[in-house]
Amino acid sequence: MDKATQDTPMIQKVIAVLWPSFLTSGVATILFFTAFDPQLIVSVSGYGEITRLGGYTIGFFLFWMLTSISCLLTCYFQRPCDPK
Amino acid sequence: MNENAQTAQETDDNGSFYAKHKKVYPRQVHGLFASLRVTGVLVLLGLYYIVPWLQWDGHQAVLFDLPDRKFYIFDLIFWPQDFFYLAVLLIIAGLSLFFFTALAGRLWCGYACPQTVWTEVFLWIERKVEGDRNKQIKLDKAPMSRFKFSRKFLKHFIWITFSAWTGFTFVGYFTPILDLGVALYDLALGPWEWFWIVFYSFATYGNAGWMREQVCIYMCPYARFQSAMFDKDTLIISYDNERGEPRGSRKKKIDPKEKGLGDCVDCTLCVQVCPTGIDIRDGLQYQCIGCAACIDVCNEVMDKMGYERNLVKYTTENAIEGKKSHLLRPRVIIYLVILLAITAALIYSMATRIPLELDIIRDRNALYRTTSEGMIENIYTLKISNMDRIEHTYNITFDSDFTIKPILRKTQVTVASGKVANLSARIQADPLDLKSISQDIHITVKSLKNESLTVTEKGVFLGPVSR
User: Fewer CB within 10 Å, N or C, chain B?
Assistant: First the structure.
């Protein structure tokens, strides 16, 4: 690990995980729900009923969760594997 | 490597990774660029808060109606199928950013970015409540008292109220704001509407009240890559080292040359007004958002001292090095040409857009069936979307290079503005006429009111091949 990565303040690390994933999940939400109507997806898959706004919101947070997991893993794998 | 890992581990355990952040207290500034920014703030925020309340032709003038999957922008109605336009619009926005950055540096950051614009308002509120820079610093240092508490309470109260209004307005772009207002008054908002109002309010309060310049430094992707669009002819804000140094305080009447001093009186006002807390005299820094507050304040000081203005000024790297600056250069011209071409294409395509769509959906249950008369029959659903602002009656016609017999309940259908009509259509053909298992048919939908509203789509007719 180079010095620059090591000296990164904690707050910057947290932002480095949450913020890019927020941006990309925003884009993903727009693209996905432009093509697919959440109400149709939910009713066809048999999960009952949902308002569209609710569908978008849940979709956004699902995307955000996924993208932040990949950001988190990227940060994690940046650390050297040998702890000693 | 290993050693480094060890230290990283230790520091991690100590949890001492939080950035030591010194609060920046930007001092109020007056002058040409400050006026420009205030104008920008008033225009942009004015638009933001007023636009959702405008009505147009019986609907909200600008409404991104997510629940209904339709975007209204004055006379235009956009559907999910029109996503193409949004994509082009984003490309245009991106290219404009490239163009203006190459030309004049961080214009966006200094005058138009929502972060700057809202922070400006929050700073204004802070100044009205707590006083200017010195009073704020004093108040923050003072122990908690009734006075301090009342000031802080008032400031946060106004900030939060303003943020809540901002969040409400934001959601008002996506659900009709008049209904939203009524629902809010009755406290009968849906859970998702509540959620997004609170979310956006919180983001405004956090970003403009607390994070401020840290958003620009840590979070903004543009701030990181804008330097790639810079060249030696890009406008930057710079301090004239030659003229200013050696800096030093002096009495107004003395001749600085006699004392061996430059023009910088080292009043540090340029540092005090900086919203990101940097010293412009240290050279070009990535934290500089190009707000030009230091230019304004330094000019004021220069005027008072009776020195020439522009010790800190907009200039280019070439100009600093004594070379000629070129406004029109290949990079700028290329950006401009692409920008104009795409904008023209978008306008042309929007102007000639046909607000009518036909989808031909085949019956999924059977490829074809044979009727009792021995005819081959295919079943389709026709989806006719009227994307126009007015009601239309459409005539439906069929065409193919083999003989077909369309069977419809009606060949004319009236569709209200913004609605979709579903029609079931059966098409029969004599198996002897079929030349292959799959043949094209064409279905045309034409408006009776306006003949130019015509759409033809291709469908497939399936059947057995007779030998």
Answer: C
Cβ contact B464:B376 at 8 Å = yes
Identity of the residue in A2, A35, A53 whose CB atom sits nearest the CB atom of B66: A53
Q: Where are the beta strands (DSSP E) in B332-399?
A: 356-362, 369-370, 376-386, 392-399
Using a CB-CB cut-off of 8 Å, the residues of chain A touching B219 are 15, 19
Chain B residues near residue A61 by CB distance under 8 angstroms = none
Q: Is B17 on the interface with A (CB under 8 A)?
A: yes
Q: How confident is the model at residue B466 (pLDDT cuts 50, 70, 90)?
A: low
According to CATH, the superfamily of the domain at B356-462 is Immunoglobulins (2.60.40.10)
Reply yes or no on whether the pLDDT at B14 is more than 70: no
Cα separation, B101 vs B349, whole angstroms: 28
Query: Does an H or E element contain B161, and which?
Result: helix B146-172
Cis peptide bond upstream of B246, omega within 30: yes
**Domain ranges for chain B:** 21-353, 356-462
pLDDT in tens, B375-411: 999 999 999 998 888 899 999 999 998 889 999 888 8
Are A54 and B192 within 8 A, CB to CB? Answer: yes
Question: Is the CB of B193 inside 8 Å of chain A's CB atoms?
Answer: yes
Looking at the complex, report in whole angstroms how far the Cα of residue B295 sits from the nearest Cα belonging to chain A: 31
Token pair listed for B249: 């305080």
Q: Provide ipTM, 2 decimals.
A: 0.77
Q: What is the pLDDT of residues B317-350, one digit of tens each?
A: 898 888 888 888 898 999 999 999 999 999 999 8
**Is A34 inside a domain boundary?**
yes
Mean pLDDT for the stretch of residues B73-99: 88
Number of domains in chain A: 1
Give CA–CA dist B166/B161, Å, rounded.
Answer: 9
- Please state the three-class secondary structure of B134-160 as a single string: HHHHHHHHCCCCHHHHHHHHHHHHHHH
Q: Which residues of B touch A28 (CB under 8 A)?
A: none
For B150-181, give one letter per residue: b (16+ CB within 10 A) or e.
ebeeebeeebeebbbebbbbbbbbbbbbeebe
Residue A43 lies in a domain: yes
When mean pLDDT is compared across B141-145, B151-155, B417-421, B441-445, the lowest value belongs to B417-421
Contact call for residues A71 and A17 (beta carbons, < 8 A): yes
Q: Are strands B369-370 and B376-386 parallel, antiparallel or unpaired?
A: antiparallel
Q: Confirm whether A63 is domain-assigned.
A: yes
* Alpha carbons A61 and A43: distance in angstroms, whole number: 20
* B contact test, residue of A11, A31, A37, A75 with most B CBs within 10 A: A11
Alpha-carbon distance of B46 to B180, in angstroms, equals 20
CA distance B309 to B430: 90
